[in-house]
Amino acid sequence: MQNVFDIYTIIFLALAVFIFLRLRSVLGTRTGRERPPYDPYSARDAAREPNRPPPESNILPLPNRANTAEKPAAKPVEAETEPADRWADIAEPGTPLAASLDAVATAEPNFDAKHFVAGARAAYEMIVNAFAEGDRRMLKNLLSRDVYDGFESAITERERRHETMENRFVSIDTAEISAADQRGRTAQLTVRFHSKLITATRDSNGNVIDGSAERVSDVTDVWTFARDVSSRDPNWKLVATEAGH
Fold first, then answer.
1. Is residue 39 part of a domain?
2. Beta-strand (E) ranges in 33-134?
3. Residue 42 dihedral angles phi and psi, to the nearest 5°
4. How far apart, in Å, do the first and last CA atoms of the chain sit?
5. Residue 185 and residue 230 in contact, taking contact as beta carbons nearer than 8 Å
6. Are residues 238 and 224 in contact, defined by beta-carbon separation less than 8 angstroms?
7. What does the pLDDT read at residue 52?
8. Sign of the CA dihedral 28, 34, 35, 39?
């Protein structure tokens, strides 16, 4: 009986030793120098945030040099100034006329004084010829209502007397802006014209009763044109006329 017990005891002890050795080969032993367990999440975060301090650390990440480098001070924005020759050949800098033209250009940024003068010259010749020919349709497109009424009345009276008017331009010597004004939405520009014309009025029998059919006359007219700068219509209309000196 004792021999049987001893045999079983030896068998169990041998089995226990075998199991212990197997476990040790699998689990190993701790020596105090082991690496911490690999954490894939902490490794991923470190890759995304290389400057991120470890947890519970008092170390602050160094600032990014690219972000903290001193940027050059921004240059102050200088107010846009108009060139001194903005109204070259139209108005002298610093004059009341130049200041008035500035006001018109402020209300209508696309305003071009030289383009306006060229248009005024063309309109002057068209209006004078249309009046002589009694072309009411042409005049209606170029004149304000008040001025048109005056021109139309003179044409009607001339027709009533069976008179005709002849007019021929020899030249338009000068066309100069003499005044400008911006009143609310309305811009007004006054132009002084110096021209040479041949003009004559004939009665029903063809006799010259006013002017001359051959003599060239020097004529000075002062006309004022106006336009609503808020309107889509780019055309200027004649709003006042007077004889110059």
1. no
2. none
3. -70, -35
4. 158
5. yes
6. yes
7. 44
8. positive
Q: Which pLDDT score is estimated for 82?
A: 60
Domain-located, residue 235:
yes
Distance CA 121, CA 107 (A): 23
DSSP state of 183: E
Q: Do residues 192 and 178 touch, judged by C-beta distance below 8 A?
A: yes
The CATH number covering residue 215 comes to 3.10.450.240
In this prediction, residue 156 carries a pLDDT of 97
DSSP conformational letter for 92? -
Number of separate domains in the chain = 1
Low pLDDT (below 50) residues in the chain: 1-2, 4, 20, 23-72, 74-80
The amino acid at 115: H
| pLDDT in the model for residue 243 | 83
At 205, list the tokens: 């029998």
Q: How many Å apart are CA 194 and CA 175, to the nearest integer?
A: 7
Domain-embedded: residue 205: yes
DSSP 123-153: HHHHHHHHHHHT-HHHHHHHB-HHHHHHHHH
Domain containing 197: what range? 96-243
**Are 142 and 125 within 8 A, CB to CB?**
no
Q: Is residue 178 part of a domain?
A: yes
The Cα–Cα gap between 184 and 186 comes to: 6
Alpha-carbon dihedral 176, 225, 82, 86, rounded to 10 degrees:
-20
The position carrying tokens 């002062």 is 222
- The residue among 237, 103, 89 whose CA lies nearest residue 175 is 89
